[in-house]
Amino acid sequence: MNARNLLDVIVVGGGAVGASAAAALAQSGFDVALVEPNPPVASAEDAPLDARVIALSPASVRFVERLGAWPLPASRAFAYRDMEVRSGDEALHFGRELVAEPALGWIVELRALQARLFDAARSRVAAVHTARVVDCERGEREARLELDDGTRLRARLVVSAEGGRSSLREAAGIAIDTRDYRSRGIVAHLTTEQPNPGIAFQRFLKGGPLAFLPIDGGRSSLVWTRPEAEIEALLALDDAAFCDAVSEASGRRFGRIVAATSRVAFPLRLQLAERFHAERLVLLGDTAHVVHPLAGLGLNLGLIDAAALVDVLVDARTRERDLGSLATLSRFDSWRRSDTHA
User: Fold this and answer.
1) Environment class of residue 319 by beta-carbon count within 10 Å: exposed (0-12), middle (13-18) or buried (19+)?
2) Which residue, of 17, 170, 183, 310, has the fewest CB within 10 Å?
């Protein structure tokens, strides 16, 4: 990319949110470059099996489908048609008839989705740069990025989709409000006595909720929130003892846990940027907001960010307004920040 070429948008971050934003903007006729130092594997089929799964809403699936990134391979995405939530002796049940959709949502392996969205972006954008940003200058008329491979880029707008730790957000002086839940989510794949028939099951316990999310072969993906003080002991259990502990915590909803894959734990926190924009800069996804996984909102919020940004920029182009001006980006900010805070 020649430094003399002025792009419409540079997207920094090629995860699911950044890649979807780049693909959607390019699909809408904008000149877009994508910067990502660590691109995913070449295809969703080749992506390593991932203990991390996310719940995609029907609206998110429609957005991903419009980008040509859906459906995923059958072994990487699993529809759930019912949801069951328990707390003590209380139980709530939700069925797909409540939303008039084929399913309440889909449980998706994150790596496979990232690979498919990155491929959709790569096929549409003007260029993909496998490099890191080392400098960003934001001026009245344009932003300039310098990458660690010596590339210099210019654009009307820079999109930061770098994740929770964003150098561009920090350089812009945008503060974040953080709440540490002092707990972690233990994730693994489980085999139960009775196959999971497609139910997203949650049980609220003292210290944090437990969730079984349906995946292939009647198995369940576990997300078990426990206080930080308990994590190391749970991770140190042998497989049989861990299966017994999860069986007890789940109330044996699908019978005993008979097998579990290796397990890892992720820290849980709430993080909200004080604003989602600055001149020539807009924040998407975890760069703007990190939320507790309990309600399955995280990636869905980020995909809505991407879709909303496309709407705002298409409207600005139609009205012949500057894509990266504060006036243009303040509309996106007020729209998405109010939704995210709610």
Assistant:
1) exposed
2) 170
- CB-based burial of residue 97 (10 Å sphere; 0-12 exposed, 13-18 middle, 19+ buried)? exposed
pLDDT tens per residue, range 220-278: 999 999 999 999 999 999 999 999 999 999 999 999 999 999 999 999 999 999 999 99
Strands 105-109 and 77-80, sheet pairing:
antiparallel
CB contact set of 24 (below 8 Å; sequence gap of 6+): 63, 66, 67, 306, 307, 310
Residue 135 CB contacts under 8 Å (≥ 6 apart), including other chains: 144, 145, 146
- Rounded distance between C-alpha atoms, residue 169 and residue 100, angstroms: 39
Model pTM greater than 0.90? Answer: yes
Rounded CA-CA distance 331/310 in Å is 12
Residue 141 DSSP code: S
Q: Which of 13, 20, 89 is nearest to 61 (CA)?
A: 20
What H or E segment, with its residue span, contains residue 328? Answer: helix 326-341
Angle between helices 298-318 and 58-66 (to 10 degrees): 50
Q: What are phi and psi of 326, to 5 degrees?
A: -60, -35
Q: Are 69 and 56 in contact (CB under 8 A)?
A: no
Residue type, 146: E
Distance CA 134, CA 285 (A): 21
Could you give the CA distance from residue 68 to residue 323 in angstroms, rounded to a whole number?
A: 26
**Residue in the structure block whose two tokens are 């010596």:** 150
The first and second tokens of residue 222, run together, are 């576990």
Phi, psi of 43 (to 5 degrees): -150, 155
Distance separating alpha carbons of residues 190 and 185, to the nearest angstrom: 15
pLDDT in tens, 100-137: 788 999 999 999 999 999 999 999 999 999 999 999 99
For every residue of 240-266, DSSP letters joined together read HHHHHHHHHHHTTBTB-EEEE---EEE
Place of tokens 């990487």: 76
